[in-house]
TrEMBL record:
Listed name of the protein: UDP-N-acetylmuramyl-tripeptide synthetase
Domain Mur ligase N-terminal catalytic: 25-97
Pathway, per record: Cell wall biogenesis; peptidoglycan biosynthesis
Key words, A-Z: ATP-binding, Cell cycle, Cell division, Cell shape, Cell wall biogenesis/degradation, Cytoplasm, Ligase, Magnesium, Nucleotide-binding, Peptidoglycan synthesis
Gene3D superfamilies recorded: Mur ligase, C-terminal domain, Mur-like, catalytic domain, MurE/MurF, N-terminal domain
Domain Mur ligase central residues, every copy: 109-305
Post-translational modification: Carboxylation is probably crucial for Mg(2+) binding and, consequently, for the gamma-phosphate positioning of ATP.
Binding site for ATP: 111-117
Amino acid sequence: MKLNILLEHVDKAVNSHLLDIDVDIKGIATNSSLVRPNDIFVAIPGYRVDGHQFIDAAIQAGASVVVGEKDLKDLIVPYVRVINSRLALAQIACQFYGNPSRNKIVIGITGTNGKTTTTYMLKYILESCGRSCSLFGTVQNVVNGKTLPSVNTTPDALELQKQIALSEDEFIIMEVSSHGLSQYRVEGVEFDYCLFTNLDKEHLDYHRDMEAYFSVKASLFDQLKPNGLAIINHMDNWGKRLADLLTSKGYQIFLVGDKSYHDLQIVHFKSGVSTVSLKGNQSFELSLNILGKHNILNASMAFLTALLIGIPQQKVVYALEKFPGVPGRFEMLQHPNGATVVIDYAHTADAFYQCLQTAREEGANRVFHVFGFRGDRDKEKRRDMVSVSKEISDVHILTLDDLNDVPYEEMEQALYALSDGGYVISDRTIAIKEVLEHAHKGDWVCITGKGAEDYQQKFRLPTASDKETVQFLFQKIDEATNGGFEPLH
Ligand SMILES: CC(=O)N[C@H]1[C@@H](OP(=O)(O)OP(=O)(O)OC[C@H]2O[C@@H](n3ccc(=O)[nH]c3=O)[C@H](O)[C@@H]2O)O[C@H](CO)[C@@H](O)[C@@H]1O[C@H](C)C(=O)N[C@@H](C)C(=O)N[C@H](CCC(=O)O)C(=O)O
Ligand SMILES: Nc1ncnc2c1ncn2[C@@H]1O[C@H](COP(=O)(O)OP(=O)(O)OP(=O)(O)O)[C@@H](O)[C@H]1O
């Protein structure tokens, strides 16, 4: 593509005369090691390193044009200075791949919790009706039925535009994170449906405060196509704010909630099976294989969206009944002694509440809760998480989550400082072992924070995830002759 066409929609600072240069651009790169001859290299001042440092390497690798934010002179190739490199990248990628989101039905889901679950539910409903979907999210990306690894919840603009262009699927369903929005990863994507699940204290190491976090999330809705629809959880206070904001802007909004004026009303809110009704219609049952009122809410959001897309109600009900769940989201395993083990991805206070309260409402005798905190991530939410755990569970055990380069001892100290009457067992696998040893029939063990993700560091047991650890320990119980655990060596 000719440079002048490629840069047509880029907010440029200076050197715009270079747009006239008759250069043919073959591709786009943001990493110097991935540059190929005749690529345009976009230098991004990153959080770890400054991409401008790699301009020479990019040129050596064949970049024929460089885009950046700095005032640079004397480059041997044309240099386009822009106000924001990430924004320019999105605008360039969008143009290069021909605005691919315009040819798709695009669904974006934002909010602190429930994005992954809701995307999975929607994908399942649509695919059950023979419609094809690409998916972008925390657990995996899927395009044309092929699974691709997921580096970020929301991929960077270059990867996202490329994958949407490659997609032959009818729908694009994506989780839109606040980082993704603030880093312009979805800039240029035009959405048919945008969903808001909820907002809870999270990522305040990145956003100034909750107001700033909310504003970023709300900005997704400005990317709706002219006839695009917003679907909002109106039981969440931030959802109420968003609904007011979008109404004042003239957007078409649909609300999920527990009041008769909601477009989808959850009339009788119960984990597993709930009664819901559509405005002005008879109520009916919505049943799910996964427990938790929060999952009923996620299902209701998916339900309303599917109806707006035009899927018949009965087909949606049927698909949700069969929905197999999401790896590591309230995934239940049965302890040989009759206790119940739940592996969940809860890592905010609200998610703790949902997970632990579900165990309580299911009649748990005692609730054991094993959890930790990500190193080098939002510290503000930690105390709230501990207090919810302390309030709802009978025993809370603090353990290590991903260290993210924080020294082991430092994180261990943080656990002791926060434990508030709970136990600290630093080795995650040993914490799980201790709890499984102490849990009896009728007790529930909730292990939260990692979900289906692999461990980032080695722990004492030879396992790579919470599920593997639990299954490894169950196996040991089965093998042991005395009905207890084999000693560990
Ligand atoms: C803090 C943060 O958001 N970082 C994101 C950011 O990376 P960065 O700014 O650190 O990049 P960098 O490593 O400093 O590199 C800067 C530039 O130099 C280039 N470079 C670098 C080295 C080299 O040799 N040559 C070279 O050209 C790099 O390609 C890059 O363009 O831009 C990258 C590309 O978009 C992201 O992958 C990366 O996400 C990292 C992996 C991350 O962990 N992000 C988290 C915080 C995040 O975004 N999370 C949300 C979900 C949150 C949630 O809801 O739970 C998400 O959407 O994933
Ligand atoms: N609607 C909801 N309200 C509150 N908590 C929820 C809701 N849905 C899920 N959760 C909790 O949040 C955890 C993460 O759920 P899910 O992966 O669906 O959310 P997410 O928004 O994709 O999270 P992340 O952005 O961190 O990947 C679940 O394991 C559960 O504990």
